[in-house]
Write a structure and sequence with these properties.
about 70 residues, about 20% helix, single chain, three-stranded parallel β-sheet, alpha/beta
Amino acid sequence: ADEGMSHLSGLSQLRELSLSQSNLGDVGLSHLETLSQLRRLAIVGTRVSEEAGRRFEQAHPECDVTRSLGR
């Protein structure tokens, strides 16, 4: 899944994205860094580490990131 994320980086107007229950990992999440209009991202049940998830949230405070069923 990480390799396929690079094609999403060009979707500059993307506002919502659900990648829950996928094989997304830290590398794949890094490809989403350029999505400045992203407002909702669901990554529940992925391989994204806590550190990478926090780093993405800090870099994108306007994006509501759901990393677990409780948040």
